[in-house]
Description:
The complex is a heterodimer.
Chain A: H1 2-29, H2 37-42, H3 46-61, H4 69-75, H5 80-89, H6 129-135, H7 154-163, H8 168-180, H9 184-197, H10 202-215, H11 219-237, H12 245-261, H13 265-278, H14 282-305
Chain B: H1 2-17, H2 20-36, H3 48-79, H4 83-88, H5 93-127, H6 132-159, H7 162-179, H8 183-190, H9 192-204, H10 214-218, H11 226-253
Amino acid sequence: MRRPALILLLLCAGSLALTGWVLRQDALRGRDQAKSALAVLLGDGRRLFANHFLAKADAYFHRGRYPSLFEVAEKQAGNHLVESLGSEGGDAGHVQGPECDHSAGPGEEAHAHDEACEHAEPSGGPDDWIARLAARFEPDRHVHLEGDEDKEMLPWVKLAVEMDPHNVDAYAVGGYWLREMGKTREAEAFLREAQRNNPDSCEIYFELGRLTELTTQDWGKAGRLYRLALVKWQAANAKLEKPDLIALAQILGRSAKVHEAQGEYEAALQDYTLLKRVSPSPEAVQRLIDQLQKRMAEVRSPKSER
Amino acid sequence: MNRVFAVAAVVIRELIRRKDFYVLFVLTAAITLLMGSITFFNEDDIARYVKEICLLLIWLATLVIAVTTAGRQLPAEKESRTIFPLLAKPISRTEVLAGKFLGCWLAVGITLIVFYLFFGVISLAREHELPLVNYLQAVWLHWLMLGIVAALALLGSLLMTPAANLSIVILAVIGIWTVGEFLNRVAAKAGGVSGWLIYAVYYAIPHLEIFDIRERIIHGWEPVPWGAVILASGYALVYMAMLLAAAALLFRRKPLT
């Protein structure tokens, strides 16, 4: 009995050690992710790991309190980090709880992931004494990482893209959090790597646009990146039965803001008009259109007075 | 009681002499240090993923130590025929079994302390804090869980061959640990007779996930309420007693030849 157990243990430990060594070698060499040694080692199975690691990053964001596989299936919920990312660019598509405050409107970053949102809450399930006892040993409140704790998510995001360099969600999430943490150089390098591995992804161009907008305030460059994102979105969604309207709304919302910042009100109005068609809260977009039209009128009136 | 302790002391000495623990400890330490040496996005002081990997390795290593140590006690005695001179002494079969269990449980406790000391050092080096109460609770609950596992392996060793016992107990424990807590949800969904059967399994199995407070340790939550710890301790002791009583019943009737 002793020998088979030892062999089994050595095999498990050996494979774990090998994985660690391969990861380290890749990290040290800074290799092209698409050709990572892990791809050779794990084959297509690495995609499963990638999704697991991204979910792990989400669990870390909630300090370990996270719905299980069973609860997720019951609620049919997605990855909350990806959802919170969706909320950033606008109202569109954000899976929201009844008390979510979406008053900030599209383009505002006030609501990244409101604590009142119920979507990150593990569902109740049957109530028996064992479940009640077990619950007392688990993290019992919905809280998020605070301050510089955000960095704790990064290893899982990095591991997710190491496992699957075509996991656009993982790149977008990583880019977003690196930007939020003020690590703009790392964010740009990460997103450029994402762009190399996923040249047709609109999400990556969108994230690059956000990074440019927030760090360099180079509206022209940001606008060009949003336009590229729009082109990529159209190419990817043109023939789809259910196009990704969340991504479209995000791109249009930011593109409109950039146009506004550059004083290109007509182009901004055009983007807002398109956004109104795809946004789940067109009233909020209409308010923005009204504000913009008011500003346009103000700009025109001094000219006419002259 | 002295006879029980004498048997237990032999089991502890045996664990110290064997290489299993040292191999597992060195591997756990090596993998943890290797993973900890990786820098992500130029952030040197990321701690939680290292803690997570270290704790997972500790859980797996101690599970294997508990099952292999407890599972081999009686078959090894039988195989080497040392059980006969042992039982020729003024000691009952129940006392032998109790001594074997106590020895395994204490030996696993010693390994746990060593593993958690290493974890504490890693945690202190990375986070510069040592929440002692949380760690004591983690060790205590982990030890209780391993007590149930050791009792289960001891019982299994009387029913199955050593290899089958090792595989089945490890699979059962990992199964309970990972999906045991969700059986009530499955039962509620299944409904009917199958629902009742799943409920019966749900209430019959020892819920090992209760003793797993890794998430609280990794993410720096406050300690578990002591009332809950006392309840969990009672729950574990009841299961250990039931499994050992069943094992004693079997061992008393089992022919040794």
